[in-house]
Amino acid sequence: MAKTQVSKKAGAKPASKKMPPPAAQKAAGKSAVKAKAVIAPTKLTLPKQIQLNMLDLMIKSRVLEERLIKVYKAGDSYFWIGAPGEEAFGVPLGLLVHKGQGVEYDYLHLHYRGTPTLVAMGMTMEDSLRLMMNRSTDPSTGGRNFCNHYCFPKWNVVPVTSPIEVQYGQAVGTALAQRRHKSKGISIVTGGDAGTAEGDFAGALVWSTRPGMELPMLITVQNNRMGISTSYETQHGEKHIADRGKAFGMRTTVVNGNDPIETYLAIQTEMEYIRRTGKPVLAEFEVSRLYGHSSADGANRRDGVCPIQDFEKHCVDQKFIKSSEIKQLWEDYDVQSRAAADLVRQEPVPTRESIWDHVYANNENADWRKF
Amino acid sequence: MASMAQAIRMALHVGESKLGVTEIFGEDVGAPLGGAFTVTQGLKTAWNSPLDERGIISTAIGLGLAGERCVAEIQFADYIFNTVDLLKIAGNTLWCSNGQYPMPIVVMTPNGAGIRGSIYHSHSFDSWATRLAGWKVVCPSTPLDAYGLMISAIKDPNPVLFLMPKALMRVRGEELIPGEPEDEKTLKAMIDAPIGDRSKWKAKWPELGEYEVAIGEAKITRSGDAATIVSFGRTMPLCNRVADMLREESGTEVEVIDLRSLYPYDWQTVKKSIQKTGRVLFVNEDTEVTNFGEHLSQRAVNELFYELMARPRVLAGKQLPGIGLHPNLEEASVPHLEDILHEARELLAEVP
Ligand SMILES: Cc1ncc(C[n+]2csc(CCOP(=O)(O)OP(=O)(O)O)c2C)c(N)n1
Fold this sequence. Notes:
The complex is a heterodimer.
Chain A lengths: L2 E3 L42 H26 L13 H10 L10 E3 L5 H7 L3 H8 L33 H15 L6 E3 L9 H10 L8 E7 L8 H4 L15 E6 L3 H18 L3 E6 L20 H11 L5 H23 L26
Parallel strand pairs in A: 2-3, 3-4, 4-6, 5-6
Antiparallel strand pairs in A: 1-5
Helix pairs in contact in A: 1-2, 1-3, 1-4, 1-9, 1-10, 2-3, 2-8, 4-10, 5-6
Chain B lengths: L3 H15 L2 E6 L19 E3 L4 H13 L3 E5 L10 H13 L8 E7 L14 H4 L6 E3 L4 H13 L4 E6 L18 H8 L27 E4 L4 E5 L3 H16 L3 E5 L2 E3 L3 H11 L2 E8 L4 H13 L8 E5 L9 H7 L3 H13 L3
Parallel strand pairs in B: 1-2, 1-3, 3-4, 4-6, 5-6, 8-9, 8-11, 11-12
Antiparallel strand pairs in B: 5-10, 7-9
The structure holds thiamine diphosphate (TPP).
């Protein structure tokens, strides 16, 4: 289970004592390839319906990502980056987020591996594909940005941007607004392990723990133990990234992000704590990276623990679902994703004249030729 | 008359009391100091941030995403450089989100030389700033304009970079801000924090009136038809003096334009003046290679080539890695009165 730690200075207690003792602690810190596939041995549990819903969404997200890769490989897009291997983290997050628009709801400052979270929040395959195929119908960017660079104001999903780690500092701003408005909304930020070397990550720890001005932030790291090609071991002396939070007196936790049940419970617990206390949490999730970094390194299937395979086995063992039904899910989503891609392929693309749209608000002219 | 620092402070007061500004923050911006240049003294929403420029800009962006109005300060423009990628993000958020997330933030920072600030308190950021598409960039040269531009910046739904010429921060204006008490001492007693213990001090704000300077509107500060000088910020009063000197000396009437906004800029006013005079000099203190003045000069050549009587000139800071502390070094590095006068004379003397 999640290893939750609270420094004495913070004086806070773990929000939930009901959770059983750590089952897979030892494995923490090993490479994702060697990471444990831990679901069965823990006593952690969730209602069957939530588990089946998670399984369904994890499969949907994977099929969608694999469709995005196929679209890329067919030459229908220029770049792919995404989250196959992170479904056991992203789906629970998407289910638990208090979604809506404005400071009363949670803000999501995602990096470029947000598909599972968005699928769980209700994004359609079409909308993901519209971004992938840079259509003018793309609701996130109108065909302006890479895939997985989502933006959905109706759910407080603020624009994903490519520069690593900048989302951590921005989450401070939305959290500050939430604090000022005394809202129950929190600001959630996601990112990779390598990026935590950037000063913006350290900055978020400082800014979220200013004495008397603590901020309601769920600061997460998805540790797949790789940057693009540089391994965690060669660059990081700290055992857990989460440990860095301890110096700031903040609550920290390390979670097996390949286990959707453990992850769901951990996120639920931490969110509860943040909403109750208004204080930040630094949560590290150990995850897999199953298709490499992006299309830049091929987007081919690699070794590694597949959180979906493990979870399927668990659900079958528990007699929640039959293998044949799972197979059907994969097939149905595959058909759905193919149809979505075929549909989106027919949709219009941005026009050349549209480059000047939205440089300034209300389309005020920003072209100096017309000043 | 108010100094520029006092004028901006009064505009920020209007911002937080009438225009919905909820956060004014930066290094040493809150009590007791109220900003390195005292611009934020006595403001109720002003607070001290960690010493982290990237954090300041990121937080401003986050506040903007949440629809809050904020004014963030970078203590000196010299220290804004490590935030450039974040400034780019602030400028592209609306565009990248295809119009969905506006970024209504104001960032203010003291800019340029003139206070014997040596290498790291003399930098200019104005030419760099004009490359930040999506931002509006303003730089006043008088307290009244500073007041009016700050009000406009706060109301603007786009990110606005408010460059405060360091050298002019304590210079008093010649025009009253609406509502400003006529007597300098009265104003000081009301809004300047006292020396010593400030823990119980509260500003007494005058009843300030509406006054806006529209972003993108230049101002003609001297009229004439012999030549045009276009400038902004610290070099602006120097350009005015040059025009006055030339008038006294030989009756030559030089038109001087205070650009006030660098982007969007008031090309129509500049163009009309050049069409009248046929001669133009652009003056600013950022370094000279790929300088903003070069863009204006290039535009003048492209659009007005056959109306020019002399080649357009750009007078800017030397392409040096820093501005040395000794006055000899500083004066040789960025435009001063003599340099502007010299360039203006050359411009006027050129025979086509
Ligand atoms: C500031 C910045 N530097 C470099 C890059 C190029 N880049 C993109 S992803 C990446 C690796 C990020 O690794 P990590 O933070 O572990 O996240 P992961 O991709 O593994 O999820 C790099 C170097 C970038 N996008 N932004």
